[in-house]
Write a structure and sequence with these properties.
- The protein is 35% helix and 20% strand.
- By secondary structure, it is of the alpha/beta class.
- It folds into four domains: 206 residues, FAD/NAD(P)-binding domain, CATH 3.50.50.60; 115 residues, FAD/NAD(P)-binding domain (3-Layer(bba) Sandwich); 100 residues, FAD/NAD-linked reductase, C-terminal dimerisation domain (Enolase-like, domain 1, 2-Layer Sandwich); 102 residues, no CATH class.
- The strands form five sheets. It has a five-stranded mixed β-barrel. It has a five-stranded antiparallel sheet with strand order 16-17-20-19-18, sandwiched between helices. A four-stranded parallel sheet has the order 9-8-7-13, covered by helices on one side.
- It is globular.
- Bound molecules: flavin-adenine dinucleotide.
- Flavin-adenine dinucleotide (FAD) binds next to helix 1, strand 2, helix 2, helix 3 and strand 3.
Length: 596
């Protein structure tokens, strides 16, 4: 092997994390090289996020024009010229690539265009796109090779040359009938876009719901929205075989719950998942291990099994979003500077850019259930948001999960206009550990979508213990004249006493039954804890109350008072002759003052 060219920093793949680490290191004066086989800047600006959002925007324009009459405008027949749509997208991509090249130049990182593979630890052989090879070695090596679209193993599918997202975003003619295999985020975004351009669209999903990782109500809402645009959706459907060729004529034999069917189409788009670009690049030569799914095995600091070799972004199994690849870069950068950052504790927000979009951050109901996290859930239809009413875009909902034990926000999901922007507000509150009540009571601009967070959070149910207390209070109230507020306050006060002094297990009213304090001896065992507390407390106040003749049920309770056999004489003497618990005796100032 000839002598490799030596770099301080060597990056394989110019995806989001790869280019950022290269620019950062080169900018700090390190001799840096990046090897990229095709896409300057990686997938995001060339073939994924940016171009898809560009064409989705064109599709939105087509949708608006088609519905112009609703807005009081008259247009002729709407014809979409896909060549123009593509040209607009290409211009955007070219501008992105130019900006990337500028960054390479300014940072001093060398961009080497070619396909690379490891031939030894920390050593790459590059087959240059322009011909020839180069051998490069790095003191520190960063792998950021991304993923590619998986093509399911269905007879005839590969031969049919289906589109992936890359070719779909390069179409210059409109598919007559586009069949989308896969009901995930990529498939749904493109399905709706092509429907809005004017194609007939059918989505085939083998699972029982779209977006298998989402809560069922979220998946059903999106399904409803897409169905209203007359996209056909086949769930629980398996593709058995394909014949013909995408771009011409093709047919698919599918098994649906109601039997086998044959679907004819002009184009097939495959969006059934991703495969890491880790095969055939000599990782075994470099001592870099893969996990059972073919992703680079990394620890929470994104270090691989090989010393001084890191893997970042999708190829390292990180959640498949550009902002996560960027955060991977920040973790590695900070740790190289002596930090202690980890991938474990980060919030993962994401959006699906359908219309209306879906945005999510933190825990879903499904996550909470799986992780056994007790959460209170509130949901607000978008028809309850004034901004949505104003613009008459009322599909979707907002949903929030709040911790049962405290008021922290655990997760947020929204389907509705500007969902991603509203989610950022929620995410900020979560990062700041704001109790949901702070955001609920915040003054938010009217009429914005974010204003809907107020009514949403106002619907967060009270904690289970508070609900139990309220139920008890409602149940007891007709029997005496204690105002509800006093009852609740009393029990809260007593509970606080218990928790702070007598037991560490008493972290909620029901836990009072485990409490070491005397209240657990209360005979009222069948009732929730708050109910157990209050009768005792009422008993203790009972004498005062009876004396002052303000308790309507005095005679009955006097007879039943198990703390003392109170006579009207002893009551009048303000001496308590019965067995009042020591704690209460010792701390009379802690008794709640009743308000009448
Ligand atoms: C259609 C679509 C839409 C998406 N939309 C969004 C979105 O809206 N928001 C979002 O956050 N995420 C979106 N994503 C995901 C997002 O694009 C990726 O998560 C993001 O680009 C990060 O990728 P990465 O940094 O891991 O690698 P990539 O950006 O994929 O970069 C890897 C690079 O490595 C190069 N490479 C691979 N092997 C070699 C080799 N042997 N030699 C040389 N070079 C090599 C590749 O050519 C590529 O340029 C979308 C994805 C798709 C497919």
């Amino acid at each position: 092997m000839s002598q490799p060219e030596q770099f301080e920093v060597l990056v394989l793949g110019s995806g989001t994390a790869g280019k950022l680490i290269a620019w950062h290191m080169a900018g700090a004066g390190r001799r840096t090289a990046v090897v990229e086989r095709k896409w300057v800047g990686g997938s995001c600006p060339n073939i994924a996020c940016m171009p898809s959002k560009n064409e989705i925007w064109s599709a939105k324009a087509a949708h608006f024009v088609r519905h112009a009459a609703e807005f009081g405008m008259t247009t002729g027949p709407v014809v979409v010229d896909m060549a123009v749509v593509r040209e607009r997208k290409r211009k955007m991509v070219e501008a992105q690539v130019a900006a990337h090249l500028c960054n390479y130049k300014e940072s001093g990182a060398e961009l080497i265009m070619g396909a690379a593979r490891f031939v030894a630890p920390k050593t790459l052989e590059v087959t240059l796109n322009g011909g020839g090879t180069r051998l490069l070695s790095g003191d520190k090596v960063f792998i950021n090779v991304g993923t590619h679209a998986a093509i399911p193993d269905v007879p005839g599918l590969t031969a049919a040359k289906p589109l992936t997202h890359i070719e779909a975003l390069e179409l210059d003619d409109l598919p007559r009938h586009l069949i989308v295999l896969g009901g995930g985020y990529v498939g749904l975004e493109l399905a709706q876009a092509y429907r809005r351009f004017g194609s007939r669209v059918t989505i085939i999903e083998h699972g029982s719901q779209l977006m298998s990782r989402e809560d069922r109500d979220v998946a059903e809402e999106i399904q409803q929205i897409l169905s209203e645009e007359r996209i056909d959706i086949l769930l629980n459907t398996e593709v058995l075989r394909v014949s013909g060729r995408s771009g011409e004529e093709a047919s698919l034999v599918v098994r649906t719950p109601s039997g086998e069917r044959t679907l004819d189409c002009s184009h097939i788009l495959v969006a059934t998942g991703r495969i890491p670009n880790t095969a055939g690049i000599g990782l075994e030569e470099a001592g870099v291990e893969l996990n059972e799914r073919g992703y680079v095995r990394v620890n929470e600091r994104l270090e691989t099994s090989a010393p001084s070799v890191w893997a970042l972004g999708e190829c390292a199994g990180s959640p498949q979003f550009t902002h996560i690849s960027e955060d991977d870069f920040r973790i590695v950068r900070d740790n190289l500077a002596g930090g202690k950052r980890s991938t474990n504790d980060r919030l993962i927000p994401y959006c699906m850019f359908t219309e209306p979009p879906l945005a999510h951050v933190g825990l879903s109901e499904r996550d909470a259930e799986r992780q056994n996290v007790k959460a209170r859930v509130a949901k607000l239809p978008m028809s309850g948001v004034l901004r949505a009413q104003a613009i008459m875009e009322m599909q979707g909902f907002m949903k929030v999960l709040v911790d049962e034990a405290d008021d922290s926000i655990l997760g947020f999901t929204m389907i509705g206009p500007e969902a991603g922007e509203v989610m950022a507000v929620m995410e900020t509150a979560m990062l700041a550990d704001l109790p949901h009540t702070r955001l609920r009571d915040a003054v938010l601009t009217h009429p914005t979508m974010a204003e809907g967070l107020g009514p949403l959070l106002a619907q967060v149910p009270a904690r289970a213990a508070e609900q139990a207390a309220a139920r008890w209070a409602a149940m007891e109230r007709p029997r005496h004249d204690f105002p509800l507020s006093y009852q609740i306050k009393t029990s809260v006060r007593l509970h606080t006493d218990c928790r702070s002094r007598k037991t560490d297990a008493c972290d909620g009213f029901p836990a009072l039954s485990r409490c070491a304090c005397y209240y657990r001896l209360d005979p009222c065992a069948a009732l929730p804890c708050r109910a157990k507390v209050i009768p005792q407390r009422i008993d203790q106040h009972h004498h005062t109350v009876c004396r002052s003749a303000r308790l309507g049920r005095g005679a009955r309770d006097r007879a039943q008072c198990h703390a003392c056999a109170l006579s009207s004489e002893s009551a009048a003497s303000s001496q308590h002759p019965g067995e009042v618990p020591t704690r209460v005796k010792a701390r009379p100032h802690r008794r709640p003052a009743p308000r009448w």
